[in-house]
Specification:
Mean pLDDT: 91
Oligomer: single chain
Number of helices: 1
Structural class: mainly alpha
Low-confidence stretches: none
Number of strands: 0
Order of helices and strands: H
Strand content: under 5%
Radius of gyration: 34 Å
Helix content: over 70%
Amino acid sequence: MTYETLGTILLSTVVGSLTLFLVYINWKILRVSQALLKISLDLLAETIIIREETVLIRHISENIYVESVRLRKALGDPVEYSPKE
């Protein structure tokens, strides 16, 4: 074998090794990205649930406020209230 052939084999081996290393790195990045995507989807689902429950609580709170104002007026409370009706 000549030095030229050995150089070509060595260069091919180095390029192949670097290629395999980069494939491994990309595969690890893919796995981390998939884990982050799952976490993001879970967080989004929880955020949607919290948003829906917050809207429900706000609606219930407004109804309680209106009813408490009506009750105070019915009991003759001298303080003036302006309910959200």
